[in-house]
Amino acid sequence: WLICHGRRARSRSSGMSRAEASVEAVLKSRGFEEALGLRRPPPEDTGRRPERGRRSEERGSISGDIENGQAQLEHRFSRQAISEAFLCVAVEVHPVNNQHPEALLALRWTVESMQCLLGDASSRSSEASPSTPGGGASQETSEGAQEVLRHRRRGGDGDEALRVFAATVARIHDSLSLQNLQQNGLGRREADALLQGLYILRLSEMSASGRSDRLPLDSVLSGVRAANWLMVKMVRTFSFPSRRLEAERQCSTLVAAVSDIAFSGASRIQQMLDNGHGAPTRLAALAALAPVVQCPLCRTMAATDRVIKRVRAGEAAPTCCVCTESKADVCLPCGHLCLCEDCYGALPRQAAAGDLP
């Protein structure tokens, strides 16, 4: 809520569009926590304050800073909170979703902020020394607090930022679970950001394959976001207050988990409607590989298309080593004539993993 409220207030006050406001909010930040929305930006000085309320405001500011500082420390040490905050900001500034000329620069700084904060959290949780790599996020933030991120110079490039974004979206989606909602669940806003992240990945995949019609993916995104909003609204209306938050996270997590199926289906349908064949699908790649079986004697894996059936060896044919009743008439590529045709047909098949005999 703090991230949304802060960014919307700044966009309304400056008259900027949402895309421009998201990019400017990152590039005008003076620290990594502020870039990810984990810490509010410092208030701007609007002039002299009246003497009457100065002391009471200072006392309230001190107590508020103490409470805010404790909340920030708890939030900062949570790797899940850092990743979710990164996701909420990154989907707003990603070049696929934002046409601002500095969108890629904002994404680079968003990735840099997440990596430094995650490294800082890891070093603190493991009680590492301050000289360990990744442990200087807080120090760097305090040293460069007077300079906005836009004017700082850091390593990394746009391709690495795009790769980290895709890996983070996939990691968060794969870790979703209904068993532990506090650690592996998502709220409504985080689930909405994950839906946009999956949408961005599908759009990038579509652009790489030369397809440009994004209407099916746009329709799926609108549908799953509407489903997320509707389910949360119903939970807030009909659930008990004591279980409302858990039920909201359960519904949002469920929508986010199954949304990738809808995106995959829309992408596959669009590929079928295109004139060209497009990139081969995973099913086509698996179908091109012959299944394999394992020899019961030497345990060698052999492709089924190289097996010789109906071998006639007469009285010299050995007995099937599986049923020990019929004569063996199937010769495997390893050279063993040890199976009858019925037992060979009952052998379990596996997917080929490479060059096999």
Topology at a glance:
Blueprint: H1 2-14, H2 18-27, H3 32-35, H4 54-77, H5 79-93, H6 103-125, H7 137-143, H8 158-174, H9 181-184, H10 188-208, H11 215-238, H12 244-273, H13 282-287, E1 292-294, E2 301-303, E3 330-331, E4 337-339, H14 341-345
Antiparallel strand pairs: 1-2, 3-4
Describe what is shown at a glance:
By secondary structure, the protein is mostly helical.
Which features does this protein show?
357 residues, mainly alpha, two-stranded antiparallel sheet, two-stranded antiparallel ribbon, 14 helices, 57% helix, 3% strand, disordered N terminus, disordered C terminus
Describe, in plain words, how this protein is organized in 3D:
- There is one protein chain.
- The protein is mainly alpha-helical and 357 residues long.
- Among the domains are: 1-42 and 69-174, no CATH class; 290-345, no CATH class.
- The protein has 14 helices and four strands.
- The chain has helices spanning 2-14, 18-27, 32-35, 54-77, 79-93, 103-125, 137-143, 158-174, 181-184, 188-208, 215-238, 244-273, 282-287, 341-345, and strands at residues 292-294, 301-303, 330-331, 337-339.
- Strands 1-2 form a two-stranded antiparallel ribbon. Strands 3-4 form a two-stranded antiparallel ribbon.
- Helix 1 (2-14) packs across helix 2 and helix 5 (79-93) packs antiparallel against helix 6 (103-125).
- The model is unreliable at 1-15, 71-75, 128-136, 281-289 and 353-357 (pLDDT under 50).
